[in-house]
Amino acid sequence: MKREKATTLYLGPQHPGITGNMMVKLKVEGDTIVNSTTHVGYLHRGFEKLMERRNWLQSFTIVCRICVPEPDPNEENYARAVEEIEGREVPERAQWIRTLVLELARIGTYLLWFAGQSGSAGLYTMGQWSIGDRDYVLDLFEELTGGRVYHMYIWPGGVRRDLPEGFEAKVLQTMDYLEKRLIQYDKLMFDNTIFQKRAMGVGWIDPEKAIEWGVVGAPLRAAGIASDVRKDDPYEVYDQLDFEMGHATTSDVWGRAQVRRFELEQSINLVRQIIEKMPKGEYYNRIPNPMKWVVPAGDAYVKTESARGEFGYYVVSDGTNKPRRVHIKGPAYVHAMTLLEDMLKGANVSDVSFIMNSLGTCPPEIER
Amino acid sequence: MTTENNNLEREEAVVVALKATFPDLTARVKRIRRVEASVSKALTPSVLVHAKNVLGYKALSHISCVDWIEDEHFELVYILWNPDEKIQLLIKTLISRENATMENIDTIWRQANTYQREMREMFGIEFPGFVGAKEFLLEDWDDMPPMRRDFDTKEFVKEAFFLRPGREDAKDVRDTIAKRSKEEIPEFAKKYSREK
Fold this sequence. Notes:
The structure holds two protein chains of two kinds. Chain A has helices at residues 47-52, 56-63, 72-86, 92-119, 124-145, 167-190, 193-199, 218-221, 229-232, 253-277, 332-344, 352-359, 364-367, and strands at residues 7-11, 23-29, 32-39, 154-155, 158-159, 298-306, 309-317, 323-329. By secondary structure, chain A is an alpha+beta fold. Chain A has a single domain (7-367), classed as Cytochrome-c3 Hydrogenase, chain B. In chain A, strand 7 (309-317) and strand 8 (323-329) form a beta hairpin. The longest helix of chain A has 28 residues, at 92-119. Chain A is globular and about 70 Å long. The N and C termini of chain A lie far apart (46 Å). The two termini of chain B are 47 Å apart. The longest helix of chain B has 13 residues, at 9-21. Chain B has a five-stranded mixed sheet with strand order 1-2-5-4-3, covered by helices on one side. Chain B is elongated, with a radius of gyration of 24 Å. In chain B, strand 4 (73-82) and strand 5 (87-96) form a beta hairpin. Chain B is built from five helices and five strands; from the N terminus they run αββαβββααα. The A-B interface holds A 37, 40-41, 44, 46, 48-49, 52-53, 80, 83-84, 90, 95, 211-214, 225, 227, 232-240, 299, 301, 303, 310, 312, 314, 316, 324-325, 327, 329, 333-334, 337-339, 342, 367 and B 1-4, 31, 33-34, 58-62, 64-67, 77, 79, 83, 86, 88, 90, 109-111, 113-114, 133, 135-139, 146-147, 149, 151, 153.
């Protein structure tokens, strides 16, 4: 058979289908991709180097900027790593508030993901609704922290301030509203034949190899592997909460969407549990003067289950007032590089954004 | 922080298992679900393969590099996860800063490819036999690898960037506005001024 001539296509860095500032270089024969390479470097801000020159508290204002859709796991990871090295106790109430913030962030991120995933299938109504609903979650963040996107709220020693008066009632109202909206989402997205046909059987990951290849988060659970940092390596107060992991066995875009849809509902229930069980008390174990604050020598590896998967921080202190090294690993570091490059081989060119969204690709955390 | 008992039997069993196969290695339990081991550079690939294939540390969570310039070495930290035992294993090794090389492990874990590309670019560590696109985050970079501690960021900025013509005096915004508008900086704000 005569071999077709391959064409090179550049998807990104400016393209509505790409999930941020990165580029995928595709070699296509007809509609089929024969080779793909991820190119990053459009967003490198040198955060890890910057942190080496700033003191421990100044670095905390940088970490949230590593991931725009979901900054809170970064704040929590950094704070917990510093606390682990220093041996600093965190008040119980602060741990509950942190868990509340992380779950609200997860809800916001899943809503944003709904928009990306449905938008890449051409279902724009769904995206406009879920982005609109995400704004209600951002309203809560604005009231709690003063910021809608970057919160800088979880810091070493606890959280920056206590819950405002009447905040719990507003959170519960928002959760009631979002729960009702899930029925609409199901109709718009999961009952939609277009989405079903596009998602089923597309972007398959071999479940046998998934762990070895570094797959984490919803894609791993959609491959039938029960893995969630909240269960496997519990942090904050997740061991005192009752929730289930999403589960699917299809290991395709459809399965990943099912897992996230289920977990969105679980997160709404988690928020209700947290509000119900949250104890009264202190919310901050005050750190010394930040300009003179010295963290003893040591290192810590901590991780969080973000909405896109396991988020890890390796933090090293040399016993001075500045971090020696803060090394961040987000799920996209593997998902958007080696995994995506392998997955796209043999895929249809129209499925590229669809597969990328299902993996939760986020270039800022590759580059930092 | 979690309310678990402090029974570290499982973690201690990992230390015993590692030492049984590699007597030269030092290992300790850091805390619940965290074990760390220090290994020589030559032994590291064998320990990694053993951890993956025999001890069940199938997942590579992270590879980090720390520059200990005062001791003239890099510390590489391979962070592995055992999905059955739920234990994180940190394998640390020291390599010389001068002509830094390390064994390529992307044949053990495919995703190590990205980490190694970054370490080659940011720290200047070479991995003989490693095939990976040369450029990762930086483009046309011919300076010192920028994550090395002796890379002077301030000097680099001075050389690489220039002040906008006509704005050379605008290094301190507050002072410049005060001079141009001929308004006095309030007494309380003077302590923040760069021109003291």
